[in-house]
């Protein structure tokens, strides 16, 4: 059997970037032969194995045939008869369809190195249209490789896929993963820009039409999702998160920023009752939740130093029930007394 380093590791090495993960393709072998060599099989839909020493993934060379809708509607054939070129041909972009032999030879049947030099994201073959997830992968690669442009013919295929409704076949989880990776990329705005150019914001990202965020420099997906939420209202954030089945922490952060951010950013000039409600909503007063993610996003997006708001929150938390219980207050009367005292404190400090 022959073993080749493939995909992103080859691409990143040629770009002079750090190679963080290595994937391998095995040509001329069978599952039985791999298991005899000590590899552990982990793939269900097609044979993927873990190296007994390094734990890296080794996949048997395979071909794919489209049999159904979506990202998973394929039948795979993996066997000793499948060639390296056939395996590379099923990949999405030419820059991801290169391999390197054990002797160090670059195998590049589809011009991936040329496209690296030209800074071009180009599809390998017309089979690109069989997997709608590739529309989002291309947009994500545009975010990860800011100097690269999508080839005109690839963008045309993406437009046709979006127009045909193919994107609706995807699962929310897979679409969210592409957004998550884009949010951690050097140029996250390009993810939205490429999708907009392809007419592919619908049906998954309709709320983000025309959105241009002030992206934090840190590649933190949470802070950057918050930057998106700052551009929206709470209803649109809620709709987006429900459709994408976004993790709870992203959904809550988005709703806190969109629903309460501007009140908290300008708290001295806002109605004290609105300020109190906003602080309660983001968890700044209960001591059980962490309001810092929301406050950090609000601070950066508004350009205002919220140190005074954090100090106010600490003083509001200190207004507890003990003093009012000593006065004989209980139940609703106790809750109202605490609320009134907190409102008075906000009025006093707002000046």
Q: What keyword list fits this structure?
A:
351 residues, seven-stranded mixed beta sheet, single chain, alpha+beta, elongated
Q: Into which percentage range does the β-strand content fall?
A: 5-15%
Helical run tally: 16
Low-confidence stretches: none
Structural class: alpha+beta
- What oligomeric state is this? single chain
**Can you list the strand order of the major beta sheet?**
3-4-5-2-1-8-9
First and last CA, distance: 78 Å
How do the SSEs run, as a string of H and E? EHEHEEEEEHEEHEHEHHHHHHHHHHH
Gyration radius over CA: 26 Å
Overall shape: it is elongated
What value does the average pLDDT take? 94
For the largest beta-sheet, the strand count, sense and barrel status come to: 7 strands, mixed
Question: What's the count of strands?
Answer: 11
Helical residue percent band: 40-55%
Protein topology:
Blueprint: E1 2-6, H1 8-15, E2 23-27, H2 31-36, E3 40-41, E4 48-50, E5 57-60, E6 62-66, E7 74-78, H3 84-89, E8 99-100, E9 106-107, H4 112-118, E10 120-121, H5 133-144, E11 149-150, H6 152-163, H7 172-183, H8 189-197, H9 221-230, H10 234-244, H11 248-265, H12 272-281, H13 292-302, H14 307-317, H15 322-326, H16 331-350
Parallel strand pairs: 2-5, 10-11
Antiparallel strand pairs: 1-2, 1-8, 3-4, 4-5, 6-7, 8-9
């Amino acid at each position: 059997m022959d073993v080749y380093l493939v995909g992103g590791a080859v691409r990143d090495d040629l770009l002079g970037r750090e190679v963080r993960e290595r994937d391998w393709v095995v040509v001329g072998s069978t599952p039985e032969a791999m298991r005899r060599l000590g590899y552990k099989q982990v793939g269900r839909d097609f044979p993927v194995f873990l190296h007994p020493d390094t734990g890296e993934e080794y996949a048997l060379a395979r071909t794919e045939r489209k049999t159904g809708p979506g990202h998973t509607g394929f039948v795979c054939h993996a066997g000793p008869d499948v060639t390296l070129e056939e395996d590379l041909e099923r990949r999405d972009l030419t820059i991801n369809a290169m391999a390197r032999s054990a002797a160090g030879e670059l195998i590049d049947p589809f011009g991936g190195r040329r496209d690296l030099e030209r800074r071009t994201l180009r599809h390998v073959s017309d089979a690109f249209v069989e997997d709608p997830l590739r529309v989002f992968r291309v947009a994500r690669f545009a975010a990860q490789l800011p100097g690269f442009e999508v080839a005109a013919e690839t963008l045309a295929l993406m437009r046709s896929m979006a127009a045909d409704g193919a994107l609706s076949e995807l699962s929310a989880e897979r679409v969210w993963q592409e957004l998550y990776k884009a949010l951690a990329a050097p140029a996250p705005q390009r993810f939205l820009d490429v999708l907009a150019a392809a007419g592919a914001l619908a049906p998954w990202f309709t709320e983000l039409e025309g959105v241009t965020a002030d992206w934090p420099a840190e590649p933190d997906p949470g802070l950057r999702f918050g930057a998106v939420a700052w551009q929206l209202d709470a209803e649109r954030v809620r709709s987006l998160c429900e459709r994408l089945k976004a993790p709870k922490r992203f959904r809550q952060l988005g709703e806190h920023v969109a629903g309460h951010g501007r009140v908290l950013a300008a708290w001295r000039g806002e109605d004290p009752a609105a300020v109190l409600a906003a602080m309660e909503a983001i968890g700044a007063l209960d001591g059980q939740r962490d309001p810092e993610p929301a406050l950090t996003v609000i601070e950066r997006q508004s350009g205002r130093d919220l140190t005074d708001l954090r100090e106010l929150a600490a003083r509001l938390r200190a207004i507890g029930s003990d003093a009012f219980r000593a006065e004989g207050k209980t139940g609703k009367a106790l809750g109202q007394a605490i609320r009134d005292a907190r409102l008075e404190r906000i009025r006093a400090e707002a000046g």
